[in-house]
Amino acid sequence: MKATGIVVEYNPFHNGHLYHAQQARQKAGADVVIAVMSGQFLQRGEPAFADKWTRTEMALASGIDIVFELPYVYATAQASDFAKGAIELLGAAGCESFCFGSEEGSIEPFLNTWELLDSQRDTYERSIHEAVQTGISYPKALNEAYHSLTGSRSGFADLAKPNNILGFHYIEAAQKSGSTIKPLTIQRIAAGYHDPIQPGSNIASATGIRRAFFEEGSLEGIENYLPAPSLSALKAFHEDYGAFGSWTQFYPLLRYSILKERPHNIKRFSEVAEGIEHLIFESAKKEPTFEGFINRVKSKRYTRTRIQRMLTHIYTGFTWDQLRSFEGPSYLRLLGMSETGRHYLNGQKKNIGLPLISRAADLADPMGEIDIHASSMYFLGLGADNLKREYTTPPIYFG
User: Fold this and answer.
1) Is 153 exposed, middle or buried (0-12, 13-18, 19+ CB in 10 A)?
2) For the chain, does the N or the C end have fewer beta carbons within 10 angstroms?
3) Could you tell me the residue ranges of all domains in the chain?
4) Band of the pLDDT at 331, cuts 50, 70, 90?
């Protein structure tokens, strides 16, 4: 059976994700679509809107065949490490290709960009370093260094666009690892990554969908943008927990996590650097709301996303030492599968490149322990009492 892979968060699974999955299967000529999905915390440094099992259920009900969890170490990392973890897992799962959505819509500009940056690596990295020293944010420094190499030439990917950036890092990760997995891309349609909901369309970004829910406080306002199984799963999740994941919901515990430390302890946590621990600590003392807190801390140099990743690590207790101890994923954690997915895994047992884990009790390594702890902290933030759910939830089977 031929498998293609996709890297996802499904926060939540919406009509655009359904289109991506269908197009990936078609473009790759695949029998099986394998999704590597972030767990309870996401790459932009946020708690997931709904937990990973709810999002797995949405995915399987809408045509995904296998869902593996992207470990916390990579799911909450900067783009290059996020991509590295995801591509290694797809390769270990036996995928012949991977397919990502992009603003570009064509794979050639990404391959051209990789060849250019690989051949000009020293110049590129020096330009980034010099730009950062001027006080601008790292993403802006990357963009300026990139434009200094491409100039006005055409044929390269526009790395000012969020999905193009991730797409480039997927290709970079595959090239650096020497993988033979083939990159594919499809055009992102209708809604950009950060766009608000647009009347008259049935496709909206996940960001726009979440924003609309939190503004209106009702799932009715977003139902046109979700497949029916996604809407049903979200309703069930809300009935169970009475809330969806957000920093507004988690802020009381986040604030406590910050204030129980001292700044010299806060700087132990991953991504906290350059003395910002003092501002984080003082802002937590002064600000009773998350928006007030984040607006006090973010700046041109420290984007909201970068700050949120720091906060995620402070909240979960994930340190620099832990981050530096890992070189790559150590397992494939199965969250769910369809009947087709089950047949694929049964036929691939001897070819799977990492231990296949279906029970939390088998995650007996440091990376797995971090996943289990992060999941407990997620449910604690929701005010739930099922902190042991990692041990009681088997992979979801969608027959």
Assistant:
1) exposed
2) C
3) 247-324
4) very high
DSSP codes joined into one string, 42-109: -TTS-B-SS-HHHHHHHHHHTT--EEEEEPHHHHTS-HHHHHHHHHHHHHHTT-SEEEEEESS--SHH
Residue type, 135: G
Q: Which residues contact 258 (CB under 8 A, 6 or more apart)?
A: 266, 280, 281, 284, 314
- Dihedral (C-alpha) 20, 24, 25, 27: value to the nearest 10 degrees? 130
Phi and psi at residue 6, to the nearest 5° = -135, 150
Residue tagged 């799963």 (tokens): 233
Q: What is the largest CA-CA distance in the chain?
A: 57
Burial of 180 (0-12, 13-18, 19+ CB in 10 A): exposed
Token representation of residue 277: 């621990």
Residue with structure tokens 């937990």?
A: 51
Is the CB of residue 286 less than 8 Å from the CB of residue 228? no
Q: Token pair for residue 111?
A: 């391959």
Name residue, tokens 């009935």.
239
Residue 319 is classified by DSSP as B
Helix, strand, coil percentages for the chain (3-state, nearest 5): 55, 10, 35
Record the tokens describing residue 47, joined without a space.
């708690």
The backbone torsions φ and ψ at residue 113, rounded to the nearest 5 degrees and listed phi first, read: -65, -45
Annotated binding site for ATP: 7-20, 101, 163, 188-189
358 vs 249: CA distance, rounded Å: 30
Please, which pLDDT band fits residue 195 given cuts at 50, 70 and 90? low
